[in-house]
Amino acid sequence: MGRRLLRGDPLVLRCGPYTAVVVPAAGGRVASLTWDDGVGPVPLLVEWTGSEFDGHQWPKAGAFPMLPFANRLPPDGFLFAGARHRPQPGPSGFALHGMAHRRPWQVREVSSRHAQLEQVHEAGEEGWLWPWTAQQDIVLDDRGLQVTLRLRNDGDHAMPAGLGWHPYHPAASAQAVSSLQFAAAARHALDEQGRAEAAPQAAVFEGQPGETAVFTGWTGEMRLPVAGRRVIVTRCEGATSLVLHRPVIGDYVCAEPVTALPGRLGEADPVLQPGEVRALTWTCHCETGRSPA
Predict the structure, then answer these.
(1) Which of 14, 107, 164, 214 lies at a CB distance of 3.0 to 4.6 Å from 258, suitable for a disulfide?
(2) Residue 35 CA: distances (Å) to CA of 141, 142, 144
C-alpha cells in the first residue's frame, strides 16, 4: 500500500454557469466540474465523491496532474544520459503517471475563481534522481475551467521530463464514446509494457472497451457530445500528443494530453535544463445546440 490520500479541505470555485471543486490534499485533483444553464447540471468530469484512497489505487474520477512523467514506464525503467533510471513502481510493477498525483499539494493562493497550488520534490525521492518544483494555476471563468501546469528543474543537471493531464469524462454508452471528435496525424498502439510503438497507423479511435492508443500530431482539441445536444470541449496548449482510453468496465473516457510518448521518456522529447520551466495549459467548457454525432 502507498500513501493514503484524504479529501481534506476542498476549494470551491464558481463563475457563471460553472462550478469546480479542487482538492489539494488529494494529489491536486480537480474533483468535479459542472455546467448548469438553469435546466440542469451537466458533469464535464466524472465527480469524485471524496472517499479516502490509496495513492496507487486512485478513483476513476475528476482530473489530476501527471508529473514529472506521464503514463506508464517499463519495469526496467528508462535510459537517460547513458544511465538507466528506475523510478519507484506501484503494486502493478510499473511506475505510472509520476508522483505528483499521489501527494498533497500546498495552496499558495486562493480566491472564488482561482487557486494556485505547489509541490516540491527533493532529489532521489521515489527513485527520481532530480529535484523539481511543480505548480498548478487553476482558473474558472464564464468560459469554463483553465488549468496550467508548470514543471521546473531545480537541479544542477539536465532532467528528462514529461507533463500530462488526466481527466475522466462521463461517457455512458458505446455510442457516446464513438462520437468523440479530434484530429491528429497518426495513431500509435501501446505494447504490453505501455510503450508507444514506432509504426504509425490511421488516426482512428473506435471507443471499444479496453481500447487505449496515443495520437501524435494532435491539433489540441477534443469534442465529446453528451445528452441534451451538449458537447464537452477540451483544448490544450503545450502538448501535441493525446492518449485516449476507454475502460473495459466504467462509464467514462480518458482524453489525456501529454508532452512525451508513453513509455519513451528521455528518448526524443526535450530535456529540462537547470532552472528551466515547461508548461501545459488545458481548458474545458460546455457548448450547446449541437446534436451528438
Answers:
(1) 164
(2) 11, 10, 8
Closest CA relative to residue 10, chosen from 26, 18, 19, 1? 26
Q: Please, which residues have CB within 8 angstroms of residue 244's CB and are 6 or more apart in sequence? A: 180, 182, 205, 211, 212, 213, 214, 215, 253, 254, 255, 256
Each residue's pLDDT tens digit, 180-237 = 999 999 999 999 888 999 899 999 999 899 999 999 999 999 999 987 789 999 999 9
3-state secondary structure of 225: strand
Which domains are seen in the chain, by residue range? Answer: 4-288 (2.70.98.10)
Q: What is the C-alpha separation between 258 and 265, in angstroms, rounded?
A: 11
Q: Which of 190, 205, 185, 136 is nearest to 164 (CA)?
A: 136
Q: Tell whether pTM > 0.85.
A: yes
Whole-number pLDDT of residue 3: 61
Q: At 163, which amino acid appears?
A: L
Specify the residue for cell string 464514446: 177
Collapsing DSSP to helix, strand or coil, 261 comes out as coil
CA distances, 13 to each of 2, 37, 60, 150 (Å)? 30, 17, 22, 21
Q: Are 242 and 187 in contact (CB under 8 A)?
A: no
Give me the count of residues in the chain: 293
Predicted local distance difference test score (pLDDT) of residue 166: 98
Do 129 and 224 touch, CB atoms closer than 8 A?
no
Q: Which three cell numbers stand for residue 263?
A: 513509455
Report residue 186 as a C-alpha cell. Answer: 497518426
**Helices assigned H by DSSP within the chain:** 174-178
